Amino acid sequence: MSEQNPSTAVETKEKIRAFLLHRFPAAANLDLDADASLLDSGVVDSLGILDVVAFLEETFGFEVDDDDLNPENFDNLAALERFAEERRG
Amino acid sequence: MAVPEPAYLLHHLLERAVVSRPTAEALVDRDRRIDYAEFGARARGCANELIDAGLNRRDRVAVYLKKSIEEATSLFGISLAGGVFVPVNALLRPAQVKHILDDCEVRYLITDDTRLATLGDAVAGVEKVFCIERDLAPSESAPGATKTIGEDLAAILYTSGSTGKPKGVMLSHRNLVAGSRIVCEYLGITADERILSVLPFSFDYGLNQVITAVDRGAATILLTFTFGQQIVKAIQKESVTALAGVPTVWAVLTQATPSFKKTRLETLRYLTNSGGAVPTATIDQLRECQPQTDLVLMYGLTEAFRSTYLPPHELETRKTSMGKAIPETEIFLVNGDGGRCGPGEPGILVHRGPTVSLGYWGRPDATAEVLRKNPLLDEHEGADLVCYSGDLVTMDEDGYFYFVGRNDAMIKSGGYRISPSEVEEVLMATGELAQAAVVGLPDKTLGNRVHAIAVAAEGRTPDPEAIRTYCSEQLPAHMVPRDIEFVAALPRSPNGKVDYKSLRAERVEGTVKT
Predict the structure, then answer these.
(1) b/e for B482-496, b at 16 or more Cβ within 10 A?
(2) How many domains are contained in chain A?
(3) Are strands B60-63 and B84-87 parallel, antiparallel or unpaired?
(4) Rounded to 5 degrees, what are φ and ψ at B254?
(5) Do the chains contact at A66 and B469, CB–CB below 8 Å?
(6) Of A47, B197, B248, B509, which is most buried by a Cβ count within 10 Å?
(7) In this complex, do A26 and B445 lie within 8 Å of one another by their Cβ atoms?
(8) Residue A53 domain-assigned?
(9) What is the largest CA-CA distance in chain A?
C-alpha cells in the first residue's frame, strides 16, 4: 500500500522508527538518532533485512534492488531514511 | 602416526586428512585460509594446552566463538585431548550461556576477549578460560594417545524441548563418525567438495558440514552473513559446491537477493535443507533460479542426528515429503497403542540406527522418554534403544514420510527449537503479568512465529513493547515474541493445565484475531 499524500522526511523517519521498534524490540536500547548501528549490534540480522525490505517496499512503494542491499542503506535509522527518501523519488 | 582405518573417533577423520591431503585447503574464513597440515597443528596446539591445564578424559570444554577457523579447530583439538566439546551458539545471551556451562559442568571455556567481557560471572563455575587472542597456538608435537573409545562422549549439543531449559544431547564419537559417513554417502561428498558453512556448529546439522568436509579432506568455507548477496559472492569467489541451509536461508536468497535469481552459480552442485519444511513455492523458486543444482530435503532431530532425506530425483513427485530413511537406518511410525503404523496412518516417528544419541546430560527421566526399547522386538530378541522423535508423521506405500505436526507444545521457528516455558519464564520475570502462554503461529518465512498470550497482573497495564524489549535483553532474537496479546484469562484443559492446543487452534483458524 503506497502513500497517497506526499509526506515529509520527518514522517518517513518516524514510520521507519516505529517499524524498527516493533519488529526489533532490542532497538529500544540503541540510540537510533545517534546513528547506532543496527547491523553491528546484531539487532537486525539476515532475517531482519528480509522484513525491512518488505516494509520499505510496502510502505513507500518502491522496489529494492541488488545494489541497494548493503550496509550503507541499512545500517542505521538515518541511512534507512535517506535511502527511502531517495528511492521514493 | 598411523590412523586407524576405519576411523572410529572424530579426530581420526582429521588425522587421516592431515596424512593424505596435507596441502589441501581445509578452512576458509574471509581472507584467512589454512590447509589440513595447519588444521592438524592447530588442533594439536589446542589439545596440548588443555592437557597441560589438567584435562581428564570426558571433561567438558565449551566453545563460545563466532564462526571462525579457531572455532572449527578447537572442536577437533578437544576431541584429540580426550575431552567433550560443547559448542555454544554465538547468539546466546549470558544467562543462556551460564545455563549450559553450569548444566554439564563445563571445566574449560574457549572464547575471545570481547565475548568474555560480556559474560561477567556467567563463567564463575569454569576452571580456566582460554582466549584465542593469546592461547591455543599451533603445535607440531602430538599429544599422547588417550584412552578414548568410540562409545565415549564426543560432544554435547544443547537443544530445546517442549518445557524447561535447553537440554544437552550427548553424542558419542561413533554417533558423529557414523553421521558423517552416512551423510557423505547419500550426498556423494568427495575431496573436491567446497562446502559453505553458514549454520552454527551448536546445531547438529550445522556441525555436520565441517565434519563431512574433514571426513573427505574437502574444504569448508565459513561465513556469517547479513545480506543474501554475501552468500552469492562467497559461492562465486570460493567456487562453492554445496550449501546447507534452513528455510530462513532460502527465504533470504529467494526474496531479498536479486542476484541469486539472475546469476547461474555453475559450481553449486547441491543445496540441503533441514530444520523445518521449505514452502513449495520456495522449492520451485530455488529450482528455477539454479536449475543445475540438486535440492536435497532432509529431516533430523539432534537426539538422532539425521533421520531422513529425499533423493533429488524424487522432489518433482514428492515436494511435501521429508524423504526416506538415511542409509544404515530404519525409520518407522508407532501409533497410540505402540504398534507399527500402516501406510497413511499418522504415528510418532521412531529412529533406529547408529546415530541414536546417548540421551540428555544429567536428565535420566527425559532420556527415558526419548530413548526407549525397540517396541517391535522383544527383550530376548535383542531389542535395542531407539529414539522417539515426538513428531507426528505419515508414511506412503513407498516408504516416504510426510510431516503432520508436533505432539507437544515445542515450537519450531526459523530452524530453532523453542521451549514455550523458557520464554514464558522471562515474560513472567517482568512482574507485569499474572499469566503467560507462548505458542507458535504459522509464518511463511519462519514456519512458526513466537506469539505470546498474556493476562495482566492485577492493577497493571503492561506496555507490550517494553516487555518485548526486556525479552530481547534476556533472550536471543529468535525467542522474543513477535507480538504480545492480552486476554482476560487463559483457557484451561479439564486437568487444569493451560490449553495450548486451543490457544493455537483459535488463532490459526481465525476465531481469535491476533
Answers:
(1) bebbeeeebeeeeee
(2) 1
(3) parallel
(4) -90, -20
(5) no
(6) B197
(7) no
(8) yes
(9) 35
What pLDDT shows up at residue A88? 84
- Of A21, A47, A71, Cβ closest to residue B248: A47
Nine-digit cell at B506? 483459535
Phi-psi region of A56 (alpha: psi -120 to 50; beta: other; left: phi over 0): alpha
**Closest residue, chain B, to A39 (C-alpha):** B226
Provide the CATH number for the domain around residue A80: 1.10.1200.10
Residues B389, B356 contacting (CB under 8 angstroms) = no
C-alpha to C-alpha distance for B65 and B72, rounded to whole angstroms: 10
Instruction: Tell whether A46 lies on the interface with B, counting CB pairs under 8 A.
Output: yes
Is position A4 within any domain? no
Q: Which residue of A has its CA nearest to B228?
A: A46
Asked if pLDDT for residue A2 goes beyond 50, the answer is no
Helices (H), B384-499: 420-428, 464-474
Residues in chain B: 514
* Grid cell at residue B113: 576477549
Report the range of poorest mean pLDDT among B55-59, B152-156, B489-493: B489-493
Whether A61 has its CB under 8 Å from any CB of chain B: the answer is no
A21 belongs to a structural domain: yes
Size of interface A-B (CB pairs under 8 A): 73
3-class secondary structure, B133: coil
Q: State the angle between helix axes of B69-81 and B10-20 in degrees (0 to 180), rounded to the nearest 10.
A: 110
Q: Which of A39, A42, A69 sits opposite B256 (nearest CB)?
A: A69
| Residues B409/B418, Cβ–Cβ less than 8 Å | no
Burial pattern B10-23, b for ≥16 Cβ within 10 A else e, equals: bbbbbbbbbeebee
Is it the case that residue B80 has pLDDT exceeding 60? Answer: yes
At B81, the pLDDT band (50, 70, 90 cuts) reads very high
Gap between the Cα atoms of B39 and B22, Å rounded: 9
Whether residue A42 and residue B91 make contact (CB cut-off 8 A), yes or no, is: yes
Identify the weakest region by mean pLDDT among B65-74, B141-150, B350-359: B141-150
B247 part of contact set with chain A, CB < 8 Å? no
- Grouping H, G, I as helix, E, B as strand and the rest as coil, residue B280 is helix
Closest partner residue to A50 among B225, B255, B477, by Cβ? Answer: B255
Confirm whether A1 is domain-assigned: no
Exposure string for B196-214, b = 16+ CB within 10 A, e = fewer: bbbbbbbbbbbbbbbbbbb
Residue with cell 607440531: B140
Structural domain harbouring A63: 9-88
H-run or E-run covering B100: helix B94-103
Give the per-residue SS3 of B478-503.
Answer: HHCCCEEEECCCCCECCCCCECHHHH
8 Å CB contact of A70 and B248 = no
Distance separating alpha carbons of residues B237 and B223, to the nearest angstrom: 12
**0.90 exceeded by pTM:** yes
Angle between helices B69-81 and B204-216 (to 10 degrees): 80
CB B39 within 8 A of CB B76: yes
Residues facing residue B439 across a β-bridge = B451
Is the pLDDT assigned to residue A67 strictly greater than 90? no
Contact between B115 and B109 (Cβ < 8 Å): no
